[in-house]
């Protein structure tokens, strides 16, 4: 009975030591205030160099073009998603991925926009449709 548990612990500690990219916590819910400037930093653990990417609600890569909102910028420890001015239409499920020579890890960010008339929330179905495109 103990063997599978022991093996599971062994495998997870080996995975943790391998340098594979990892996110802790693996998922985040964020509330942004409509009209504000926001910077969401994505930081992974794992062997450097790590290459980061941010994806928007339609799974398109967010570029560093500051004429668009949001856009991305390298940050001190990772990679930031920047909203110059948060809008209701920015609500939804975003993701950040980090890649190194061992592989890629992705972290979903559930972004809710707080407006004067209440919260805008795009309902999620992480376990069904979302998981396929994120992982
Ligand atoms: C959301 O809005 C409410 C009132 O409109 C405010 O009290 C709350 O602090 C806001 N939350 C954030 C994260 O801005
Ligand atoms: C995601 O980004 C793509 C490319 O910039 C853009 O065409 C698309 O409208 C964005 N999706 C949403 C929901 O804003």
UniProtKB/TrEMBL annotation:
Residues in the signal sequence: 1-16
Keyword tags: Disulfide bond, Immunoglobulin domain, Signal
Residue span, Ig-like domain: 21-112
Pfam families: I-set
GO biological process: homophilic cell adhesion via plasma membrane adhesion molecules
GO cellular component: plasma membrane
Top-level taxon: Eukaryota
InterPro entries per the UniProt record, alphabetical: Cell_Adh-Cytoskel_Orgn, Ig-like_dom, Ig-like_dom_sf, Ig-like_fold, Ig_I-set, Ig_sub, Ig_sub2
Matches recorded under SUPFAM superfamilies: Immunoglobulin
Name of the protein: Ig-like domain-containing protein
Source organism: Araneus ventricosus
